[in-house]
Amino acid sequence: MKLLVTGGAGYIGGIVTTMLLDAGHDVTVVDDLSTSPADGVPPRATFIECGLADVATVLTREAGFDAVLHFAGLIAAGESMQQPGRYWHVNTGGSLALLTAMRDAGVDRIVFSSTAAVYGDPESVPIPETARLKPTNVYGDTKLAVDLMLAGEAAARGLAAVSLRYFNVVGSYRGQGERHTPETHLIPLALEAAQGKRDQIAVFGTDYPTPDGTAIRDYIHVEDLARAHLLALAALAPGEHKVYNLGNGSGFSVREVLAVVEQVTGTTLPVVERPRRAGDPVELVASSKRARAELGWTPAKPTLAAMVGDAWEFLQR
Ligand SMILES: NC(=O)c1ccc[n+]([C@@H]2O[C@H](COP(=O)([O-])OP(=O)(O)OC[C@H]3O[C@@H](n4cnc5c(N)ncnc54)[C@H](O)[C@@H]3O)[C@@H](O)[C@H]2O)c1
């Protein structure tokens, strides 16, 4: 297939691009390089430096795209609470521009990177796709708005859409890994602290109603996550907006994660305790039963030790 990948210079988009190329697809990446360096784009892909707002020019100039995989956006929940307008502009406004350009160019298939953040503080875990949608941060709001847009476009004009709701993504794949600037994710921050590149690693909130007082999250290996995108492409159906959670169904507290990082790296981390951050839910653990049943997806690397080990190997390169 001829595929357009938005955000393909980034962590997950870059790895999915590699897998798509390996599967024989023809891939064009668009990315404005606002939060990733250009060398994140796999060299075998065609690269066009372009923002979501201008993607119409690409879709008009280069006809014949079969589908879009849409990763581009801003990803830091904490930052979204400080800069809400910027998040609405890029994530929701950018996605609206993309969907409009797709409609005008007659491209009617899309796989979208949604997030566990759309569920907010869930009423129970593990969280199914049918759970209440009530984000606790602006990042989640902006992603939920796109899920709703996709549902509307599917119903109104037969768009084939899949939203993949990722839980916390970790690890590396064939030399490609996480290089966010600024980095906000717990595991890469902890690994950088283990390398001595950071003076401290902060635990935000030690008074949550959890066994050790720290927040609980579900982690998924980026290789397993990336594979789900190829399955999702095959599952696209005209007029349907399908939604799948992607996680392992096991929750780890922040303290448990840091213990695994210490084990893998053989270091003692310089941990500091800080108050809770606005918008951080207590516990997010996925039910991925639907992805397993409908996509035939099974995580091959479900252990935290494997995820942290691969992320550590990437950082040490
Ligand atoms: N990393 C995670 O744990 C995680 C979890 C849930 C959901 N997601 C979602 O997955 C997607 C990819 O995440 P990632 O970790 O690879 O992020 P990333 O920051 O590594 O990649 C995002 C890419 O989008 C590009 N970009 C940003 N704004 C753009 C714009 N207006 N036009 C064009 N390009 C733009 C950036 O330059 C970057 O290369 C995001 O949509 C994110 O919300 C990620």
3D architecture notes:
This protein is α/β, with parallel strands linked by helices and 317 residues long. The protein has two domains: 2-167 and 219-246, NAD(P)-binding Rossmann-like Domain (Rossmann fold); 186-217 and 249-312, UDP-galactose 4-epimerase, domain 1. Helix content is 38%, strand content 19%. The protein has helices spanning 11-22, 55-61, 77-82, 84-105, 138-157, 186-194, 222-235, 254-265, 289-295, 304-316; strands at residues 2-6, 26-31, 46-49, 67-70, 109-115, 160-166, 168-170, 201-204, 216-221, 241-246, 251-253, 271-274, 283-284. The chain has a seven-stranded parallel beta sheet, sandwiched between helices. Helix 2 runs parallel beside helix 4 (84-105), helix 4 (84-105) packs parallel to helix 5 (138-157) and helix 6 runs parallel beside helix 8. The radius of gyration is 19 Å and the shape is globular. Nicotinamide-adenine-dinucleotide binds next to helix 1, helix 4, strand 5 and strand 7.
